[in-house]
Amino acid sequence: MASNKKYWKSVEELKDSSIVETLSKNEFVEEIPTDQFLGDKETLENSSTSRRDFLKYVGFTTAAASLAACEGPVRKSIPYVVKPDDVTLGVADWYATSMADGYDFANVLVKTREGRPIQIMPNKEANGTTSARVQAAVLSLYDEKLRLKKPTKEGAEISWVDADKQIGTKLNELKEANKPVVLLTGTMASPSTDKIVEEFIAANPNVKHVIYDAVSESGAADAFKAMYGKRALPNYHLDKAKTIVSFGADFLGDFHGGFEKSYINGRKPETGSMSYHVQFESNMSLTGANADKRVVVKPSDQVFALINLYNAITGSTVASKSTPVDADVKKMATELKKAGSKGVVLTGLNDKNAQIIALAINKALNSEIIDTVNTLNIRQGNDAEVAQLVSDMKAGKIAGLISYNVDPVYSLSNASDFSDGLKKLELSVALSTENNATVNASNFALPTPHFLESWGDTQFDEVTYGLMQPTIQPLFNTRQVQDTLLKWSGNSTKYYDYLKAFASANVLNGSSWNTALHNGFFTKEVVENTDFVFDTLEVISDVAAKLSSSANKASGFELNLYTKTGLGDGKQANNPWLQEFPDPITRASWDNYLTMSIADAKELGFANPVKDNGAIDGDYAKVTVNGVSVTVPVMIQPGQAKGSVGLAVGFGKTFGLKEEMQVGVNAYPLYKGGNNIQYGVTIEKVSGTHQFACTQVQKTIAGRHDILKVASLKEFKTVDPKDHKNGWNKPAYVSYDHNEVEANTIDLWDEHNREVGHHFNLSIDLTSCTGCGACVVACHAENNVPVVGKKEVRVGRDMHWLRIDRYYSSEVETREEAKELGLSRGEMYEALETEAENPEVTFQPMMCQHCNHAPCETVCPVAATSHGRQGQNQMAYNRCVGTRYCANNCPYRVRRFNWFNYANNNEFDFNMNNEYGKMVLNPDVVVRSRGVMEKCSMCIQMTQATILKAKKEGRAVNTDEFETACSSACTTGAMVFGDINNKKDQVASLVEDKRAYGVLDYLQTKPNVIYQVKVKNTNEA
């Protein structure tokens, strides 16, 4: 049962480690450096009280924090002389728009205050979702360091008029001479922009449009075109699936943009049925971590396993090889045939042939899960055309290049060839929102606005037509790429007018433009194309032969290049929120690394020692692929397939980035041919020790009973949850008067009447939480949480109000139970380490639990923390003197101490240290000063705003009207916030649900954050 499992967060915990044992008992591993800010003569010379008297009266630690807490700066405010008509001071405006930066695509709502966008949320009416990167994109708007601010030629400022004149003249010359020019863009997914590009090419017949995605899914698009005659990506309705089999497709991450909402909608235990999900993979991915069953398999074996699955389902005898996981493949063939049209197979191999086999399996199943009609229009990059472009540029066959929001000088594996070709061009123009290596290497650099400053349209699938509208006046001297191309095509129409006319004529079918703009989207009708027919059986043997040829030659280690949940393809590498965001799997921030199995690490001599302050170190490895080498630190990763390693792209950027942001290693040079799998990898240990910023063993509550509760679907349906012996959600018991009684019957405090007014609760469903971290960044944005940097995170000083703990679990029992089984301590740790080859994973969002009987409140000597009538544990920052008693008395380890002033401090040169970055700050939340404690407030500013709005409108608060930043951002609906005194609120029923439990409930802190037991489909029900 769940309470019998051993939960652990790092490999070090599998050893008999005294350091980890010490860390688990020590919330603060460093003392307050009181001498540093009390021993300075200049700081105290104006005081009539001597340092000795001050310490004598107040006490050493309290004095230090008190002095720091009084350092709050005074700022002068400037009022509006004439208030704009469309701005009401203190009231937020929301705008519906769309994000499409070439890698991330989303229909969103944008919150603005006094004309400043400060937060992004999903547009749920448009079925929109947000990731950590989409949430953080609002901060990238204010990136004064990296954003292009004015047009330049050869580095010198130039006017837009002169730029248009000179570029137009050169384009005409090239057109007259019929010299080839290439327009190189990322995926735009914009129908009106596509039409403008067509018109630009019509006016300049020597121009060709090439689409380049740094992280390619060209293989999937090519396969779909071969199968269905249209170059697009298939959609997947995973909510309807009965059986899901994935071969390395991280569809809860970045595969095809992600399908987490659809996936979780098909996994509601209350319905009595859940999809059965099996993941075959080498890297531990977000999707693998959430799977019901995870099968560890090297990439080369994935290839043959996929062919073997095709043979088992269709009865074919396509040439293949046996693999170590063939028994699992046979079981899944049986499950898929049983599921029939409710089964689906996906593969993340960026190989046209692998994708064709997956499509052929789905066709053989008559799968209803894969949608070939409402296709996806993202990831449109074409690897073959990009390779041809680089070859032609190097050969001098291309005369001009116009690039838009791409950086091939950084992200191409053969970037040196591209750079050499760029120097041979007669004309090179870079239109870009940000400065980058490609912009710097081009003749002309023309700044384009951020999507939050832009007009536009989007069409991520065939059904949803999205509109983009500016939420702020342009910060810099920018111009949209559409206006530029229209002008260069000889069309004087402004893009806004062009867009409105295009939408009205081609999309809206007589519907109101203003209504569509207000909603942010318009739903279209889709017509299925039945003209194209593909006979799979005629070519599948050839497809399989091509697929297996490279896998047959596999030797050495096998490298899986992947994207991290936080940084993606690296477009937002200068965004401090994303750099400090801990990876959901490794819990490391500010880095990429080579993930390696425990067995391979032992064999090659790599280790990740934990220091006595909770910091983790790592050895360096020289990784060589196709003659290209990079040196990267090693992170030992439970669940990594032996013989394989993983490395994230998107890091290692240096051009234009702040020094603090120049972290990690550029893995794109290894990304040959856009293939995410590379064979023949050699790994050599080299000298040096890397210092990771990793929260893996910091602030852990591992080792405490009932942190997590996990049940199988069969147990959920057949076992009484409260059963004293076998229950999967049994209450905690304590000894009272020599009898064992339920803990909730014993209390040290008197109960208060909480039935009057509002009483807030937050429910977190562990079954629905995928660990994506969108809530973490949303909390950052809403609550002005500071970024502290790599060095501070390393020593446990991160300021995240909300963290997502990742626990591995093993069936080997606790020490006491191991003793009963006759296992020695050495045998127990050896057994745990064996289980670490493929552990189960559970994610648990953890924030202040807002305990009704809060241990922190009773120990605060100055009443800085107290309990509100509405259930929130409140902080009065100006009362706090930073004793940290509250943090030491908190069993959940959720309070954060301000060691420094993070705002207006050159030591922390992030968004709070410059005038542009400060524009993202929420004026409803104070920026905290040095020396005070801070933590989750359950977004009290949002709950009070909701109450005041209802009061102003003369009504009661509507059902489910209350929200927090984390619950609003949660794509899967795992977080539900509301008022339990309103019995119609969803949270009121969730609190009473049979899956509901409180973490560490035996302490009887009576938290207002309630978790729902995680249910996994072990395929027994």
UniProtKB/TrEMBL annotation:
InterPro entries reported in the protein's UniProt record: 4Fe4S_Fe-S-bd, Asp_de-COase-like_dom_sf, TAT_signal_bac_arc, TAT_var_transloc_signal_dom
Residues of the 4Fe-4S ferredoxin-type domain: 760-790, 839-870, 871-900
Family matches, as PANTHER family: GLUTAMATE SYNTHASE [NADPH] SMALL CHAIN, GLUTAMATE SYNTHASE [NADPH] SMALL CHAIN-RELATED
UniProt cross-references to NCBIfam families, sorted A to Z: MoCo_extend_TAT (TIGR04519), TAT_signal_seq (TIGR01409)
Protein known as: Quinol:cytochrome C oxidoreductase
